């Protein structure tokens, strides 16, 4: 009897029923979270230390963490993950994100299991009430039935309680834990990065850059030809975001920003992409010189020369902790619906399928997308098929992933000549350049290129930018350009340009990173 009553509050395996409630809002005041066993194990696994590094000054501990690490809300803790799974708004966005990547079945399964558990709780509770009120020997409203019938019902209820309900309760537990693990290690980190990037892109385009420290002005270049791929140039934004002086940064591998609670899985993913010379985005817990942790939305891409050799890696760091202070902020961020203006950006199509770096592949894929266009009718026969094959050879996940970064459109200029040395494939696409015209960008002066695409350039545009760069300061300015989008909408497109000087160890400007985003 007591056991029957217990079903009101707990599942048969002892876990509290529906710990967060189905209509949980943004208030986390007194939540007692119960992460699944598998999740706790996964968290423990994250503590396995990687092989020691030459510049690994910070020990990485295996300490499990709760909803916050050193006072910073933790996106990836099992507790927060469970809350995200059970919060209707965040679960809905995660479901939509998964469905768009052809893996919605996992979230749909968890949603149905949640529903199943709720119904089971209700069933258990109702059975308990019926037993207590009408059937049990001391029931207040005992039914006027034969003793034999009452005995049989009592026996049936006991049997159901002892065997059927526990079996029903455990029916999906293993599968649920397995699926939760899968989500936590794959789609969930991608979802978090996507949501964070969406928010940063909006801030970069919408004139609220100051909400994120480093957004649009924190960059570094590393040189893979030097042992351990150290930073060789860094912007002032990098100095202020990390709190280290330039001489403490150059020449050092960026891992010095990692610490006790940096997620090893994210570092491994990053390392794999760097090794494969692929573009990547990670959300990493990093530490300022003061030891203060911050969430770093990190973008890394190789910069290739015309022969396809990696000359530098470009890193763009955005401190997201300036907008994420607690779990409510995390939930708010993860509840943001997809903004079609951002996600349907036509230029992102190029980034979706192409590898980054120099001009080559961006142009190739542009050719592929325009294969029915007369303009490209002189492409040698069979070329289109080569390109289709190339896309088909891409990993399925790679094809599905909307590769989405805050810095999808960038150029890297030499200084003081301000000649374009590297650029993202999306720039070629945006400026509607013929693949054969890639040379048009490479080694040409940026103002000459902009002038060819700007119906009119603000009078002081060039002067303002040149003088800021000369004095080593980052500068932003809007400009109207004739782009792919403007061809579609029949008017020039307003773009915000952000110019960031990258300096060597003597604080001399050697390179300039230019990023372009939708203007205000
Ligand atoms: C251009 C560039 C920028 C990077 N920026 C950061 C960073 O801001 N924070 C960080 O934790 N790691 C950053 N990394 C990653 C580390 O330098 C290193 O590649 C990573 O820790 C994996 O290697 P490891 O396992 O040898 O440490 C960056 C790497 C590159 C190439």
Describe the protein.
Helix 2 runs parallel beside helix 7 (173-185), helix 5 runs antiparallel to helix 6 and helix 5 runs antiparallel to helix 7 (173-185). The model is unreliable at 1-64 and 339-402 (pLDDT under 50). The protein is built from 22 helices and twelve strands. With 520 residues, it is an alpha+beta fold. The strands form three sheets. A five-stranded antiparallel beta sheet has the order 4-3-7-6-5, with helices on both faces. The chain binds flavin mononucleotide (FMN).
Task: Give the CATH level 1 class of the largest domain.
Answer: Alpha Beta
| Proper CATH architecture of the largest domain | 2-Layer Sandwich
Q: Proportion of β residues?
A: 15-25%
Structural class assignment: alpha+beta
Tell me the distance between the termini: 67 Å
Could you state the CATH homologous superfamily of the largest domain?
PAS domain
- Model regions low in confidence, pLDDT < 50 over at least 5 residues: 1-64, 339-402
Organism: Endocarpon pusillum (strain Z07020 / HMAS-L-300199) (Lichen-forming fungus)
Keywords: Chromophore, Flavoprotein, FMN
InterPro entries: PAS, PAS-like_dom_sf, RGS, RGS_sf, RGS_subdomain_2
GO cellular component, one term: nucleus
């Amino acid at each position: 009897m007591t056991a029957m009553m217990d079903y009101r509050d707990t599942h048969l395996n002892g876990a509290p029923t529906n710990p967060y409630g189905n209509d949980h809002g943004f208030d986390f005041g007194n939540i007692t979270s119960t992460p699944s066993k598998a999740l706790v194990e996964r968290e423990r696994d994250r503590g396995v230390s990687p092989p020691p590094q030459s510049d690994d000054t910070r020990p990485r501990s295996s300490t499990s963490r709760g909803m916050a690490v050193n006072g910073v809300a933790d996106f990836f803790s099992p507790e927060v993950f469970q809350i995200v799974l059970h919060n209707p708004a965040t679960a809905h966005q995660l479901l939509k994100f998964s469905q768009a990547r052809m893996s919605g079945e996992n979230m749909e399964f968890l949603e149905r299991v949640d529903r199943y558990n709720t119904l089971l709780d209700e069933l258990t509770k109702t059975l308990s009430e019926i037993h207590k009120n009408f059937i049990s020997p001391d029931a207040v409203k005992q039914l006027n039935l034969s003793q034999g019938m009452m005995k049989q019902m009592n026996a049936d209820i006991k049997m159901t309680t002892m065997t059927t309900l526990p079996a029903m309760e455990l029916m999906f537990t293993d599968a649920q834990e397995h699926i939760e693990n899968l989500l936590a290690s794959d789609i969930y980190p991608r979802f978090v990065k996507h949501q964070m990037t969406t928010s940063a892109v909006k801030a970069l385009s919408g004139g609220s850059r100051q909400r994120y420290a480093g957004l649009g002005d924190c960059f570094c270049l590393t040189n893979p030809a030097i042992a351990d791929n150290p930073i060789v140039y860094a912007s002032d934004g990098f100095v202020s975001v990390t709190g280290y002086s330039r001489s403490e940064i150059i020449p050092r591998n960026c891992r010095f920003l990692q610490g006790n609670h940096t997620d090893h899985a994210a570092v491994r993913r990053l390392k794999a992409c760097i090794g494969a010379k692929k573009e990547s985005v990670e959300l990493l817990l990093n530490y300022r010189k003061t030891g203060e942790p911050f969430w770093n939305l990190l973008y890394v891409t190789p910069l290739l020369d015309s022969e396809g050799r990696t000359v530098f890696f470009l890193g763009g760091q955005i401190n997201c902790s300036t907008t994420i202070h607690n779990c409510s902020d995390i939930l708010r961020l993860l509840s943001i619906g997809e903004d079609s203006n951002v996600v349907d950006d036509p230029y992102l199509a190029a980034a979706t399928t192409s590898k980054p770096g120099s001009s080559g592949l961006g142009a190739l894929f542009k050719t592929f997308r325009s294969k029915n266009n007369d303009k490209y009718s002189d492409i040698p026969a069979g070329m289109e098929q080569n390109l289709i094959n190339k896309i088909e050879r891409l990993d399925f996940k790679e094809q599905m992933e909307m590769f989405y970064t805050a810095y999808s459109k960038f150029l890297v200029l030499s200084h003081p000549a301000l000649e374009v040395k590297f650029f993202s494939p999306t720039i070629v696409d945006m400026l509607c350049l013929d693949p054969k015209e890639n040379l048009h960008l490479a080694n040409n002066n940026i103002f000459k290129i902009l002038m060819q695409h700007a119906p009119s350039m603000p009078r002081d545009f060039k002067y303002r930018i040149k003088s800021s760069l000369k004095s080593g300061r980052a500068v932003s300015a809007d400009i109207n350009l004739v782009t792919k989008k403007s061809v579609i909408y029949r008017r020039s497109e307003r773009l915000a340009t952000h110019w960031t000087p990258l300096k060597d160890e003597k604080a001399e400007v050697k390179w300039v990173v230019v990023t372009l985003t939708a203007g205000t």
